[in-house]
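for ur thesis appendix - ABC transporter ATP-binding protein. copy paste whatever u need, i formatted it the way the template wanted (i think)
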Amino acid sequence: MSDGAVEVREVVVRYGATTAVDGVSLTVPRGRVLALLGHNGAGKTSLLQVCEGFRPADGGECRVLGLDPVRDHDELMPRLGIMLQSGGVYPWATAGEILRLFASFSANPLNPDMLMDRLGLRKFERTRFRRLSGGEQQRLSLAIALVGRPELVFLDEPTAGMDTEARHTTWQLINELRDHGVSVLLTTHLLDEAERLADDVVIMRAGRVAATGTPAELTAAAGIDLLEVRADAGLKPESVHFKAVETSPGEYAVSGALDAAVIAEVLTWFATSGAQVTAVNSRRRTLEDVYLALTKDNRAGVGR
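the 3d part is after this line
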């Protein structure tokens, strides 16, 4: 294996007769953010549990910061920050008590007061965890994951339930982690969040890897799905390679497999028709477009 922060090779996870993770391989390079995407049931949570050392794989190999996450669990845990959706803390303790308790586990923690201020938790310092809203619990869970100055952070739906301001603060913190050399493996159902934060993306479908690459690579490979041309009104562009509709006088929406050759064919058609083209705009597919195309028809319940 290489020297990635997380290295997964052909990992398999089974629950009885159900295969939740079916031969998945991925690498989180050190100092980068990898977004793990997939519908509920795609196998993301099961894969995270293997990486975090909470369950052994049924096949394949996983190394985290160069260690076996199950065999070397006690040695590895002080170097990790783990944000769980369920919180995993005593519900009757206050936010301040919980964060300071987790800070006490670290030899060189971040200042808990600073984290509470950054994440808007100061006014909830004396509020019991069970009294916090879902978004406030998420912010506290994020603070818990970061307070020990981890080398690697696992973030499971980090902005779920957060308001817009808290969401942007979380994005800023994740970018700061990367800038300081911390590696991040996150899951999210928010595709704009993944496209904005991730250096690398792995899309899972039914327990397997459906696609991997940078956001730019994935969207570039998907190509352009709409070309808008402004020209003389009343034309009827047509070809076996593209379809054009005049959406309003002089405004044409062109669709099809719009690679460079087809776009050139579109513009040539207008030119040979004697039309004066005054504007051309293209819409490249987003990460959400790619994700939906790759995961459609996925059956929930295949993985966990």
